[in-house]
Design a protein that fits this description.
With 213 residues, this protein is an alpha/beta fold. It has one domain: Rossmann fold. It has seven helices and eight strands. An eight-stranded mixed beta sheet has the order 1-4-3-2-5-6-8-7, sandwiched between helices. The longest helix has 14 residues.
């Protein structure tokens, strides 16, 4: 770990809007932290938290939690939220497969999965955040009729997600292989992550789907 990243990690440990792996949390920590019972939206594999922060800016009457294990990435989004005084933003620095240890069942209104690692090797497909293994976790987290959003540049991953959702009989509300020429481009789907900007500059088409539990 570079000196710079070690400094970021030290700061992350002290950030009041970051909750970490192994930290003991009360079951109602979300209500305690946010001070309300507004709907909660997750960004999984949030990286720098572009979706988390941008959604929080636009929707002050909802709460947003970015989830990622890599501290230097969380440091960026959490730092922006603190600087801007965004009270409806928190970050969980945990492994996503352990998320049920930190959030109550049926407490999440929506989940965003923007540009996750595609894990192209067949032997690692269960690590994909759109695999059946993770979808079963999301079913436990989401409220009835809760929503899942997924964006990617990777066509194989996108097809895999569509197949998984069909197998699990989820209600597919929208999908497109070219978001930016589709009717689904709006103020939410149009939020750009760092990776999305790179992919678009390379001429890659962005895929998007929306499904309901």
């Amino acid at each position: 770990m570079s000196r710079r990243n070690s400094d970021k990690m030290a700061e992350v440990h002290e950030m009041p809007n970051v909750f970490e792996n192994g930290q003991e949390l009360q079951p109602d920590w979300c209500t305690t932290f946010f001070g309300n019972t507004n709907p909660i939206v997750l960004e999984l594999g949030c990286g720098r938290g572009e979706y988390t922060v941008n959604l929080a800016r636009r929707y002050p009457n909802s709460n947003f939690i970015g989830v990622d294990y890599k501290g230097p990435r969380v440091w960026k989004g959490a730092g922006i939220a603190l600087k801007e005084g965004l009270k409806n933003v928190a970050f969980l620095r945990i492994r996503i497969e352990n998320i049920l240890e930190y959030l109550q069942p049926h407490s999440i209104a929506e989940i965003w999965i923007p540009f996750p690692d595609p894990y192209p090797k067949k032997s690692k497909q269960e690590k994909r955040l759109v695999s059946k293994r993770f979808m079963e976790i999301y079913q436990q987290l989401l409220v009835p009729n809760g929503i899942i959003h997924h964006k990617t540049d990777n066509e194989d991953l996108f097809n895999f997600a569509l197949e998984t959702m069909a197998e699990m009989k989820l209600n597919l509300l929208a999908h497109t292989f070219d978001l930016h020429t589709s009717p689904y481009l709006d103020e939410l789907t149009g939020i750009h992550t760092k990776y999305e900007a790179i992919f678009m500059a390379e001429g890659l088409k962005i895929k998007y789907l929306k499904a309901k539990i």
